[in-house]
Amino acid sequence: MPPKNDAESTRISSASPPRHVSAETSSDDRGTHHPGTAGSRDGPPFGRAVGFLLSQLGFETARRFGGLMSEVELEPRQFALMRAIAADEGRSQNEVAESLHIPPSSMVAVIDHLEGRGLVERKLHPTDRRSRVLHMTRKGDEVLARATELAMGLETTICAGLPEQKRQALLEMLAQVADNLGLQRGLHPDTSSGHGRPHWTEGSEPQGDVTTPTRTPPPAGAPTSRGAGR
After folding, report:
1. Model pTM?
2. How far apart are CA 221 and CA 56, in angstroms?
3. Are 61 and 169 in contact (CB under 8 A)?
4. 134 touches 85 (CB < 8 A)
């Protein structure tokens, strides 16, 4: 058979199918994302971002803490308020409210409820009869002691397996994160409104320890919810 000329060789070469490139060979080109470039997916593994973990832990801790406080018929904000009163009894209602960043109207409602349960009491200020100071009652001390015991039980669960040295190191690191976010140490940002509750001033009226949304009465003659099912 006579040898193929150059033109025929070029025609056959151009008609040949392209060489197959294996997945192993092409993976570097197809799947590599370079940091800082558009479409980069660099970042911590799923579920390992500090912000995500803090949010996850905060949600679960608040849920469990709220359940524990319900055992002594307290809300988390009421527990925080009672601790503040017990730590420095005899301060005025306004002073305690300012220290916890609680709006005056909210403070009145919560204190009214706690006083109604016999847990705290208002007394006349020793030098200013226009002012009232806050004190714990014996019953309040007992309820607070039980609530604190429940809270410390949760703390033990959270820190299970952590030696005290690591626990202190964790506290220091979390305090640094709180500083980064501009939070005031020792003050929960949700104290004034309660976990998951609307703020008193957001279209609500304080009644005891609960927030009842302001409602517009139904028009005359309109069926009530009680009669609607009949």
Report:
1. 0.63
2. 49
3. no
4. yes
- Please tell me the total count of domains within the chain: 1
For residue 101, is it within any domain?
A: yes
Query: Helices (H), strands (E): how many in the chain?
Result: 9, 4
Q: Which residue type occupies 31?
A: G
144: three-class secondary structure by DSSP: helix
Nearest Cα to 190, choosing from 106, 69, 88, 64? 106
180 assigned to some structural domain = no
Measured distance CA(99)–CA(113) in Å, rounded: 20
Residue 209 lies in a domain: no
Q: Would you give per-residue pLDDT tens digits along the chain (230 residues)?
A: 555 555 555 555 555 555 544 444 444 444 444 444 444 467 777 777 999 999 999 999 999 999 999 999 999 999 999 999 999 999 999 899 998 888 888 899 999 999 999 999 999 888 877 788 999 999 999 999 999 999 999 999 999 999 999 999 999 999 999 999 998 887 777 665 543 443 332 223 333 333 333 333 444 444 443 444 43
Smallest CA-to-CA distance from 80 within 174, 136, 144 is with 144
Q: Are strands 204-207 and 132-136 parallel, antiparallel or unpaired?
A: unpaired
Query: In CATH, what number is assigned to the domain containing residue 94?
Result: 1.10.10.10
Note whether 154 and 60 are within 8 A (CB).
no
- Structural domain harbouring 127: 65-161
CB 111 within 8 A of CB 123: no
CA end-to-end span of the chain: 102
Q: Is residue 114 part of a domain?
A: yes
- What's the one-letter identity of residue 124? L
Query: Which neighbouring-strand residues pair with 7?
Result: none
